[in-house]
Structure formats: structure tokens, C-alpha cells
Write a structure and sequence with these properties.
globular, Hypothetical Protein, Haloacid Dehalogenase-like Hydrolase, Chain: A, domain 2, HAD_sf, HAD family hydrolase, alpha/beta, hydrolase, Rossmann fold
């Protein structure tokens, strides 16, 4: 099979359990780039985290879909765009979460700046190298959120009938993380626009993923590969399932096409 681009999720997919890119996975993607394929990293992570985890040689050759599509940067075409949740809607969501999930952890991303209502240590839970800046809720309600994050809460599905028509709500990481993004933001929408700008047919794109936020990509890309550690729903959609992220599952597939 001939592919024009490869799309890679990071956590649970291209990164191993230690949040590192293995030598084999690195070599495979470098070879794809050498052969003229477009390289797209599509992640829920913010820009700063991608810089933490990816080797320097990958940062200069890829296009980057951050926050599940709310922010996009293409290194090669120099294209860049950003989506956000309107101020009034951000305030409504923050008020509801503060009132109904007082025992949970609420934080908010605003264009690569991270804020929360209280001191939180995400170094172990989310492999973050810096924790959010604490600000009062009234100040947070003045921002247009790029993404709102909830962890350690019960019944996250209750948010969907309340706000699901206005924002994009994803429950990931085995139900432990709720990610609230702008309604128009999605990995598949961002990748489709990147491909359109670069003249790449989505049918010629191969995608790798492991979680709920990759489902849209699996439905729109030409060929989809679920990781061995992926959720059941993704494996059922995939054209094939490869080895787990700790077993170089990405490289094992890409090497077949060289």
C-alpha cells in the first residue's frame, strides 16, 4: 500500500509507557519522512508537552494537532489556527463543575497556559513537568478556554446532556479524564484541513491510535491501526491491530511498507 501521510497519536500509541519515543519508532517515522510522507502528530496534549516528549528531530518535520484539534501548527506550511470556547460558555461550565464536582480536579488550558482553582500535582497522574497556575474562578471565567480538564470525578457522562450540544466532550483514559473542547475542534477535523491545504487525499492517510479521541480519525482516514493496548471500540473500527505501545507497535506496521 502507498500512503501520503501518517497520523500518530502520542500517549498510548507512539510514546511508550515511560512517555518516550523508542529508537525503533523514531527510525520508522524518520524513514517515512525521508520517503516523502507527511508526518502529523495528533494529541490531546498542549504544545509544551509535545516538546517535552518528542525528540528534536521530529519537531522540525511534523504538523501538530494539539488539544484534540483546538490548536494546529504545521511546521512545513507555516499554517496555524486555534479554536476556543466562548467566554460566557466557559464561565457556565466552570460554575457547573465547581458546584457539582467539588471533590474533583478542575483545570483549564488557554493557548498553552495551564490554570486551576487549587494546587494540583499532575507530575505522576498526567506526566506533566509543570503544574497549573492557581487562579480564582472569577478570573478564570474571563478567559476563552482552549480546553477544560476534569479528573477524579464521578458520573462524567452527566455533562453531556447539559453541554454536549455546545462543546465537544470526551471521556478518556479509562474514564478518569474528561476533556471539554470547542465544539468545532476534533482531531479528524484538524487532520482533514491539514491534508486539504497540502493536497493530500484522506484515503491515502494511515492513522495510529488507542483511545476514544481517535475514533473520528479511524472513521475518516484511509487506513487505521489500533494499538494492542487500545480500547475495544477502536479495535473494532481498525483495519488492523498492531502490538502495544511498549512493543513498538507503530514501527512494526510502518516497517512493512518500506
Amino acid at each position: 500500500m502507498e500512503f501520503s501521510a501518517v497520523v500518530l497519536d502520542l500517549d498510548g500509541t507512539y510514546l511508550n509507557g515511560s512517555k518516550e519515543v523508542s529508537a525503533r519508532n523514531l527510525a520508522a517515522v524518520i524513514e517515512c519522512h525521508r520517503r516523502g510522507m507527511g508526518i502529523v502528530f495528533a494529541t490531546a496534549r498542549p504544545p509544551r508537552a509535545v516538546k517535552w516528549f518528542l525528540p528534536e528531530e521530529l519537531l522540525g518535520i511534523g504538523s501538530f494537532v494539539y488539544y484534540n484539534g483546538a490548536q494546529v501548527v504545521c511546521t512545513l506550511s507555516r499554517a496555524e489556527w486555534h479554536e476556543s470556547i466562548p467566554v460566557a460558555l466557559t464561565a457556565d461550565i466552570l460554575d457547573y463543575c465547581a458546584a457539582n464536582y467539588s471533590g474533583g480536579h478542575l483545570s483549564m488550558e488557554v493557548r498553552d497556559e495551564w490554570y486551576s482553582l487549587k494546587e494540583l500535582d499532575y507530575s505522576a497522574v498526567m506526566n506533566a513537568r509543570a503544574n497549573p497556575v492557581v487562579k480564582p474562578i472569577e478570573e478564570l471565567k474571563e478567559y476563552e478556554a482552549t480546553k477544560i480538564l476534569l479528573t477524579n470525578i464521578e458520573d462524567p457522562q452527566a455533562l453531556i446532556p447539559l453541554f454536549g450540544r455546545q462543546v465537544n466532550i470526551l471521556v478518556t483514559d479509562n474514564g478518569t479524564v474528561v476533556q471539554i473542547m470547542p465544539k468545532q475542534a476534533s482531531k479528524e477535523g484538524a487532520v482533514s484541513e491539514l491534508c486539504r491545504r497540502r493536497g493530500i487525499d484522506m484515503k491515502s492517510v494511515i492513522v495510529f491510535g488507542d483511545d476514544h479521541n481517535d475514533i473520528g480519525l479511524f472513521q475518516t482516514c484511509g487506513y487505521s491501526v489500533a494499538m494492542g493496548n487500545a480500547i475495544k471500540e477502536l479495535k473494532e473500527l481498525a483495519d488492523e491491530t498492531t502490538a502495544a505501545n511498549d512493543e513498538d507497535g507503530v514501527a512494526r506496521v510502518l516497517e512493512r511498507f518500506f
